[in-house]
Design goal:
One of its GO terms (biological process) is endonucleolytic cleavage in 5'-ETS of tricistronic rRNA transcript (SSU-rRNA, 5.8S rRNA, LSU-rRNA). Helices cover 15% and strands 42% of the residues. With 149 residues, the protein is mainly beta. The chain has one domain: 7 Propeller (Methylamine Dehydrogenase, Chain H), CATH 2.130.10.10.
Length: 149
């Protein structure tokens, strides 16, 4: 188990890669987005074997939780200043090539997942954007805003 650290304010949004557990993107009140590569965590903390799993089942829940190795990790692949206000939501495209961030600053931004480079800024909402989601089959992005759209 690991805690991904590095944001300077509350984390408001997280999203997994769509093709597996290769990366996680997080967004914060600090207006930044961070890309985390989780492959190094899997290598450092291999899944427990059958015997270890059986032992965990026999222990009380508190003991099992305490026995797990926990460490704080500040190793984001990149950090980008993403918005002028808090990031409310993050969505990863089905092909994992893009991710989107939505903010209280009334914008949605599209990012290249590999490089963290900004690809586009979508403006048009009159109030903060609270939720975004990519269509699993089409090249569409849905948004929900406090402006009732």
């Amino acid at each position: 188990m690991a805690t991904l650290t590095g944001h300077t304010e509350a984390v408001h949004a997280v999203a997994w890669s769509q093709s597996g557990s290769d990366f996680v993107v997080s967004g914060s009140k600090d207006k930044t987005v961070k890309m985390w590569d989780l492959r190094f965590l899997a290598a450092a903390n291999p899944a427990p074997g059958k015997k270890a799993k059986q032992q965990q089942k026999q222990q009380k829940e508190e003991t099992s939780a305490a026995a797990l190795e926990h460490r704080a990790v500040d190793s984001a692949l990149y950090t980008k200043k993403a918005h002028e206000k808090v990031i409310n939501a993050i969505a990863v495209a089905p092909n994992d090539k893009l991710f989107a961030t939505a903010s209280q600053d009334k914008t949605i931004k599209l990012w290249d997942a590999a490089t963290g480079e900004l690809q586009a800024t979508l403006a048009g909402h009159r109030r903060g954007v609270w939720h975004i989601e990519f269509s699993p089959v089409e090249r569409c992005l849905l948004s929900a805003s406090a402006d009732k759209t």
